[in-house]
Amino acid sequence: xTSDSSFREYLVDLYNGYxxxxxxxxxxxxxxxxxxxxxxxxxxxxxxxxxxxxxTGNPGDGKxxxxxxxxxxxxxxxxxxxxxxxxxxxxxxxSTWQQKRQDRTPFILAINHAPLVQLANIAxxxxxxIYLKNVPxxxxxxxxxxxxxxxxxxxxxxxxxxxxxxxxxxxxGQLTKTLSSSINNEPCPYCSPPNKCPVVYNASALSNERxxxxxxxxxxxxxxxxxHATMRDLTGLLAYLLTGGISCATRWQLDIxxxxxxxxxxxxxxxxxxxxxxxxxxxxDAIRATFDPGQYADPQSDFELWNGPVNPIEWAFSDPPVxxxxxxxxxxxxxxxxxxxxxHDTDALLRRMLPTADFDSLIEGTQDDLSAVExxxxxxxxxxxxxxxxxxxxxxxxxxxxxxHRYSVGNAPGYMAMRSLPTDxxxxxxxxxxxxxxxxxxxxxxxxxxxVRRYQPGAPALRVDWPMYQALIAARTGTPLAVQxxxxxxxxxxxxxxxxxxVGSTREVETIxxxxxRRRQQQTMRVNRARRQYE
Amino acid sequence: MIFETxxxxxxIDRTLFYSPKIEIKPAxxxxxxxxxxxxxxxxxxxQHEAIYPRAYPDPQNLPSYLRDTQNRRIREMLYGLxxxxxxxxxxxxxxxxxxxxxxxxxxxxxxRRAGEWLLAILSHxxxxxxxxxxxxxxxxxxxxxxxxxxxxxxxxLAPPNLEALKPFTPTMxxxxxxLRIDENGAFAxxxxxxxxxxxxxxxxxxxATARYGGKLDILRRLVIWSCFGVYLHLANTGREQLDxxxxxxxxxxxxxxxxLQQASIQSYRWVGRSLDIFFRKEIQLQVxxxxxxxxxxxxxxxxxxxxxxxxxxxxxxTSGRMRQTTRTDEDNVRDFRSFYYSYxxxxxxxxxHLAFANAAADLLDRVLSSSPEDIARNLGRRIxxxxxxxxxxxxxxxxxxxxxxxxxxxxxxKGELWTINKLADHWSTQYGILFGALGNENEQLAxxxxxxxxxxxxxxxxxxxxxLLEWSGYARRYADGVVLVTVKE
Lengths: 535, 489
Hints:
The structure holds two protein chains of two kinds.
Chain A: H1 3-16, H2 27-32, H3 38-48, E1 52-57, H4 63-72, E2 80-82, H5 90-102, E3 107-112, H6 113-122, H7 135-140, E4 143-144, E5 156-160, H8 169-181, H9 198-205, H10 209-224, H11 231-243, H12 248-251, E6 255-256, E7 262-263, H13 272-275, H14 282-290, H15 299-307, H16 328-341, H17 346-353, H18 357-364, H19 369-384, E8 398-400, E9 415-417, E10 420-422, E11 426-429, E12 432-433, E13 447-452, E14 461-465, H20 466-476, H21 486-498, E15 509-516, E16 521-528, E17 533-534
Parallel strand pairs in A: 1-3, 1-5, 2-3
Antiparallel strand pairs in A: 4-12, 6-7, 8-10, 9-15, 11-13, 13-14, 15-16, 16-17
Helix pairs in contact in A: 1-11, 5-6, 8-10, 8-11, 10-14, 15-16, 19-20
Chain B: H1 3-14, H2 26-38, E1 40-41, H3 45-51, H4 64-67, H5 72-82, H6 114-123, H7 130-139, H8 149-153, E2 166-167, H9 190-206, H10 215-235, E3 248-249, H11 258-293, H12 302-310, H13 329-344, H14 352-367, H15 372-382, H16 401-411, E4 418-419, H17 420-431, E5 433-434, H18 441-447, H19 455-471, E6 475-477, E7 483-485
Parallel strand pairs in B: 3-5
Antiparallel strand pairs in B: 1-2, 4-7, 6-7
């Protein structure tokens, strides 16, 4: 087996999961999937300064990988490192940590979220490590919204890799470059004409700047919808895009379809833009749920592809040649290829295909925040009180604290509101990485907080992420409250309840609105408490 | 002899105290509990007429604002809000509003003393439950303080002073066996202790938000917990050991999980079985007492029993309807005899007094307006514990998010972070609730003769519970499969 084909085998195993566990892979191979970022230097610097570092996050976020790489490079040799603390008992870890602390040796720990929280729960039994009880709070403080929180840990820094955005130009670009460049263009011994080796085609495509750029744009959509891709997800994705998760030795063997008939695999099945929608890991699922250019219509490009002129110069590759599709299935595949390989304005294409521009603008902050708050407030009010509002309505300017009441389970009998909050008491907060990590981590940008002014952690706030925004948009376009997902109503309910302390106390004359959301009617009553009468 | 009085009411008086013989809806229980807690009720006729436009299209004492025919919509709105639980009828004393204030409390006795029973649980001990003071404060807010929309809306409809309220007279003279106290001064029954602990825990979270727009949520949570408490108590009446619990196996909605579904149905059937065991045992005790006192003569032969059956003057204690409205006294006598002789047959061969007791237990369901099992089932359904199906014997436990929220808040102490396994352990030991997170569910179910559940179905079910808690903001799931649950304040 040539070194090239053994790298291909490595990629196949990387997709299938075996090689994605850092402990199982030799360090040379590990370097192939390492993307050096500012985080590497930050950890090195923290350790040299005598700090302990806790790398936490979800499995696959790259904690052990980072320690393997940094230790291999001798960058954290002044410290004691524990590469996978998730597999050890909390007491054992804390005993070692306490001893290292007494020796003034920095302790470097890779540990999953849940065991870290459990570890913090028993830290009070270790005299020198009592301060670790604040770890859960410190994990939350990796991201802040208004003002960064002061660290309550002594010479210890928590780095939550779960908050790191990996679906970026930097990471995806570097990784595709490293993986693609390791596949040389020599003919594959198993793929002879008419079957060209798809791995070679995919490697050259993923070395193309335009294609990688479009891939990142698609992955950014996935990230913006709230999906957190781990390093394991991402390397698995790229390995699959290159190999299809199968070695060329077995690639062209007859397969059996669902009806038991033999089928001959086609080259098309192994091209990266089709593979993107057939792989198996959470990132592939998220891509399928978010956007497949083959499934979304764009009258402008669809017509050109179906029947228009083909200019080979506008395409990244002329081989295979672009031909007009004969069937809708062919059109879908061509639309995928168009998305990645054709020279066009991808942002404009996405705007035409997906109505997400408003959400993007909310996340990016391109609209002024006061207008964004007013729009959100109006959408929330409309969700509870869906009848058409008159031009003089203050629905945009006052957030009603809608409430309903019944003791038996069942549909709400209507929503009442006696309290409301002016829009100017609310503002938009965007997540930011804590200052001490800001240069080392690129944070996730998949939501904003609609919160009270001078927000502090724990204060009333509504997380406006994609599902929430989608629900509010749907309400504005007439979707009845009764069919909104339960968890959306629950989150809104918790937010509105939490604002109770911000709306002041009772008034002499109360205005009470009642929305019969099923009939789309609203009644308003004014009650004078002192006179005990309606007005 | 009045059958219902002797073989149901007298037993209830000395055991449960609350009387599960007529359907209790959560709003009934709220009305009864709040009446007992406040020690007052209103029965305001003018208020009732104002909010019930269909029964009183042209009431005399309506505020002028509401008299305007254009404002009929407002009255309909009031009806929609205060009759949201469908428990409002033409007279206030038969109605229970979807209430939030002492001026909404009526003398409606549909709760059948469950409110008083719960009050006894809340007020027991040197330190009454903090839920009690909180409830009183919320329900008796003065006109300036009324902090929720419902009580503010009805403010002009009630008399200006609270003296117009009528005092509620408690009926609990002696402690029923269900509330027996042990030598340490605690409730002897751990189920009652669990109910009380739940109230205390709920109040611990809610005291802070009570004055700031959280009133309706708090009332709702306490009422759901009250209903769950009554259900739990009814379900466990027939268990033989105090430290066991009749299993409540959750079967969360979603893709069908056949073996779990079957086991959940079987676990629900234990409620009926448990109640049957309880009443059968208590009726036997009652017959024993009557026999030893010779109040109705001898109980030793078939002829004696025949005479006793014929001496039954009335089957119902009050004018309430029997379960089947077409049933006659003759039907009851005929059935009683048939049941009796079936227990006397060669195969059963029970002595006359025991055969009488068992026949009386069999007949109970036909005489009462609703059987205790019906009461438990409907209460469970209305708080979102039991699912809705066309076949009442095929009910299974499909808890709704609101109920799960209450269970979580009633379980996890303030400031604590529990794994879902710890929560599962607490629910199992305190309430008999199982949902798949423990790993020993099948062993626990086997004790009750309930069929085993496929391991993958139990895991899938636990995952659904975790997801629902996550959606409700009470749990956080980590990618390594650990789910941590807490109540954020």
